[in-house]
Amino acid sequence: MDQTIERAGNFLPRVDESAGNPNAVDRRVVSLTAPASAAAEQYRSLYYRLERLREVKPMRIIALTSAMPGEGKTVTAVNLALAAARANPERRILLIDADLRRSQVGTVLGIRGKSGLAELLAGECEVRDVIRRFHGTRLAVIPAGSTPEEPTQVLASARMKQFLQAVRENFEEVYIDLPPTLPFADAAILGHQMDGVIMVVRANVTPMQAVNQAVEQLGGAPILGSVLNGAEVNSTPYLKNYMKK
Ligand SMILES: Nc1ncnc2c1ncn2[C@@H]1O[C@H](COP(=O)(O)OP(=O)(O)O)[C@@H](O)[C@H]1O
Ligand SMILES: [Mg+2]
């Protein structure tokens, strides 16, 4: 596997250029569709916060999770990875969809093709078969593929560990869209293999207790902090005043 990804790292030999079709991108991918918007600015600011943390502690693999489904992990992961690719176009950056049950990365980025991480971990294909480059950027993307029968087992496998080791060696920044923490063991199992974990919290939706429980379930995983997703501009006085100008 190492050798395969080595080739992929030098860089993405067989990319399907039509894979990430900008016309098929979800409009919530503001880092691409509206880079000048206040929302895109928030993702850039999140990215630069990570950059500052990296000055203190080098971190390659950053994962996003949340207590429950539907809190904005995918929207955040995709925008963050695109903000990273825009900010540092010379870096090798990879976005992986590891939410094998409710995969959305391929859909929001307009990526076609069925195979992804699931097929890779099942040993049905090689990294070069599942890695795509997002249109017009050097951002590499590995979609989730089809839902396996036992997603937790697949993500907890030695193959996954090997795969993470290989991407760590071949990419400078890796963003992983993880499953939600409370319903499944996946995030807790993978959390420890990450350099940093960001907890996405849906504003006015996620109960505080659920967030606390999720953090507890992640055990000693390196949680960097949380992102409040879907906050109304009106609830943030600073932003509100700023936007009036
Ligand atoms: N900040 C946001 N503003 C508006 N809609 C959002 C925002 N974040 C997420 N959504 C929408 O909420 C739904 C769930 O978001 P998603 O990122 O898919 O959640 P998760 O990956 O945590 O399940 C999607 O329809 C998405 O487009
Ligand atoms: Mg998702």
From TrEMBL:
Keywords: ATP-binding, Kinase, Nucleotide-binding, Transferase, Tyrosine-protein kinase
One Pfam family hit: AAA_31
Molecular function per GO: ATP binding; protein tyrosine kinase activity
InterPro entries tied to this protein: AAA_dom, Bact_polysacc_biosynth/exp, P-loop_NTPase, Wzc-like_C
Domain AAA: 59-216
Coiled coil: none
Name this protein carries in UniProt: Conserved uncharacterized protein
